[in-house]
Amino acid sequence: MVLALLLTVGWAAAVKQVTDHLAEGALSAEARENGVWADQMVDLLATSTKQRLDTLKAVAEKQAEAREIIALLARMTSESGSALSDEATRRLTWLAIPELDRINHDLVRLKNGFDLDTISLLNVTGDTVASSTFIQPVNFVGINRAERDYFRTAMSGQTAVQLLISYPTGAPIIVISAPVKNTGKVVGAVSISIVLSRLVSQVSRCNFHLVDEHGVILLDTKGEHLLKAMPDNRLGYLTSENRVARYGKSELDVLPISPWDRRWERGLFRVGNQPLPEFISERKDNELGLRFQVFAPLTDFPAFYEEHDLLTGAAIIGGDALILLILGGAMHVRRNRANLEQMRLQHEELTQSRERFRLIAETIPEVFWMSEPDLLQIT
After folding, report:
1. Which candidate, 159, 180, 222, 260, has a CA 20 to 30 Å from the CA of 281?
2. Where are any strands of DSSP class E within 166-234?
3. What is the 8-class DSSP label of residue 137?
C-alpha cells in the first residue's frame, strides 16, 4: 500500500512536470504570436497618431504666422484692461467686433477642413478672443486659459502638446498650442484641440492606450482604464491644484499590473481584475511626451488551460491504473508462489512419512495389526 502510494505520487509529479513543460512551449508560442501582433499594432498606431499630431502642429504654427492674427494680437497686447473684465463681458465685447467675427468664421472653416474639434485664438493674458465654437452652445470665447500648461509653454515661445480633460465637456483631449510672435515677442497663441478617441479607430483585439508624460491614461479605446495612473506614474511631481487642472480631480487610482500567476507564463501580465493574461507592448515618444501602449489578451487562454488540465488528469489517472494493475499482478504471483511452496513442503513431509513406515515394516520381525472398524483406523 505504501509502495503504491509512493508510486502514484511520483507518477503524478512526473506527469505534471512534463505537461507543464509542454504547456510552457505552447503558451510561449501563442504569447510570441500575440506579442508580434501587439508590437506591429503599437508601431502602426504610434506612427499614425504622431503623423496626425504633426499635421495639427503644422496647422497651428501656420495660423500663428498669419499676418492678420499677428496684427490683431499685437494690438490687443498694447490695450489695457481686457483681462480685468468678467468672462461674459469679454464674450459679448469680442463677438461684436467685425474683425474677430471674420476670424471666427475662418476658424470654423479650418476646423471643418482638418477635422478638428476646436481651434481658438488666445491673447497674451490667456483670454480666448476668437474660436470655432463661437456659434455653438459651449462657446469658448471669453474663457481664460492662463492656468493651462500648454498656454504657458506657448508663451515661452515653444509649441506645446498636452493631454488633459476638457473643462466644458469633461472629455479627454489633446491640445496643440503654437506661439504667435510679433517681431520676436510672443503676443498670444493659436490653440487646436481634438478629442483623443478620434485620433485612432477602435481596435477589436486589443486595448490601445495613450499615456501622458505623468503616466496617466487619457485615451483608452475600450474605456476600461481611462484616467487610471500607470504603476510608474509621476503624479507625485504635480500639486493637487495641477492634478485638478489637468485631470479634473486631485486623486487618481493606480491601474494594478503584475506578472501572471504561473511560473511558465513569462512575459504575460495581470491587468486590473481581467480574467485573461495580457501581453503589453509600449512605445515612447520623448518629443511629444507620450506613451503608446497596446494590451493584447490571450483570448484562447481558458480553452488552453482546460485542455492542459484534462491532459494532465487523464495521464495521472491512466498511470495510476497501470501502477495498480502491475502491483496487483505482482501480489498475485507472490500468492501463487507461496501456495506452491506450501504444497511442495506438504508433499515432502508425506513422502518422508511413507518412507519411515516402509522402513519399519521391512525391519520388524513380526507385525500385528488390529483393526477397529468403528474408528476406521489400524493400530
Report:
1. 159
2. 172-182, 185-195, 207-211, 217-220
3. S
User: For the sheet containing 290-297, what is the strand order?
Assistant: 217-220, 207-211, 290-297, 278-285, 269-271, 257-259
Tally of CB atoms within 10 A around 82: 17
- Report yes or no: 244 and 250 within 8 Å, Cβ to Cβ: yes
Specify whether the CB–CB gap between 229 and 235 falls below 8 A. Answer: yes
* pTM of full prediction above 0.85: no
Burial degree of 167 (CB within 10 A; 0-12, 13-18, 19+): middle
Query: Is the confidence at residue 188, as pLDDT, over 70?
Result: yes
Name residue 92's amino acid: L
Residue found by looking up cell 494690438 in the block: 75
| Yes or no: domain 30-50+206-299 corresponds to CATH 3.40.50 | no
pLDDT at 202: 46
What is the second-level CATH architecture of the domain 65-197? 2-Layer Sandwich (3.30)
